[in-house]
Amino acid sequence: MPTPLLKLSELAEVRSGYTFRGALEHDPSGDVRVLQIKDLRHSAAIEPDKLIAITWDARTAAPLLQHGDITVISRGDSNKAALYKDEEPVVATSQFFIVSAKKTNVLPEYLCWMINLPQSQRSLERSGSSIQAISKGALQDMMIPLPPLATQQKLIDLQRLWDEEDHLIARLQTNREQMLQGIYQHLIKD
């Protein structure tokens, strides 16, 4: 039986992040962390302790990210997705779309992985002349193959192994460069 192909909107709810009025300034005693695009430029993970804190004083409850939510950068050349795995109170700015799985037959990790695949990224229509942006509709229309949960988990596990391998290779290269520098310094002194 072939793997069904579904629109993201059939598998998940897609909503916009929160629009803040005015500049955001860090408040060390703040009760809510704020996720901005700059926080995901060099990292693929949402790390609440590295985000600015604010004191939430709006009349409504903060639209907090929930464990398993996926943030997708809505502006710029890269519309990278990141999975929120924490429980800290974090609000994503309007620079993001938040994707929340609404079916039990799809893993949030799998959805995040699918959104980040190069072919998925290429399928997103971008508009704008100076700053590229994707629309909510373009994201909702992204086609997602939906294999069984066991296959989704195998794909996630395989990706984790590849990521770990990449990390180890980078560490080996750094160690090799340091070792070569040490050898060069030792030979120059002799």
From TrEMBL:
Gene3D superfamilies: DNA methylase specificity domains
PANTHER family assigned to the protein according to its UniProt record, in alphabetical order: TYPE I RESTRICTION ENZYME MJAVIII SPECIFICITY SUBUNIT, TYPE-1 RESTRICTION ENZYME ECOKI SPECIFICITY PROTEIN
Family matches, as Pfam families: Methylase_S
InterPro entries to which the protein is assigned, alphabetical: Restrct_endonuc_typeI_TRD, Restrct_endonuc_typeI_TRD_sf, Type-I_RS_S_subunit
Name of the protein in its database record: Type I restriction modification DNA specificity domain-containing protein
Domain Type I restriction modification DNA specificity: 7-157
Transmembrane segments: none
Superkingdom of the source species: Bacteria
Coiled coil region boundaries: none
